[in-house]
Amino acid sequence: MTVNLKVLIALAIFALGLAAGWAVNGWRGAAKVANCKTEQAQGVATRAEAARQDETQTAAKEHQHAASTITITITITITITISDTLTTAKSSVDDQLRAELADARRLQLDATRRAATYRAQAQADAQARSDLADRSEALDRQLAEGLGVVAELRADLGRRDAEVSALCDLANADATLLGEPGRACAGQ
Predict the structure, then answer these.
(1) Per-residue pLDDT tens for 104-115?
(2) Cys-Cys with 185: which of 17, 53, 103, 168 at CB 3.0–4.6 Å?
């Protein structure tokens, strides 16, 4: 073999080695890029999962807070109603009706304010929190309306009791005039 041929063969082997090294280095670079992309994707996935868990915990806490608020509101409303019934037993039925209707209006105003608060809280997770705000608003509205109905029914019952008492007194007076005391409305 001639020197030129040997040099050409050596150059060909060198070129092949250089090309193989270049290819292997490209594979290692591609592997490094893939590893970096994998690490980046795992970081994004980890942050997304943490954000989802935080949103879930926030939604659960807000739901629990709303349920607690409703329970406390109902308890306070019941306590106020019982207290009003005991303290206003000697007052006129109309005074009691005005007081309970004022409470119902106040509760309705509070319900409207709470609804605005629920709506503001619901903006972070629009669909789930909006549903929660709608339910809470409906419950508050129903509670206020129920208190108004109870107040009106209590006033009607008070008026009816007063009418029955007056009719019994009249019947007793008539029975006394007719000489038959004790026959009409005994025990009244």
Answers:
(1) 888 888 888 888
(2) 168
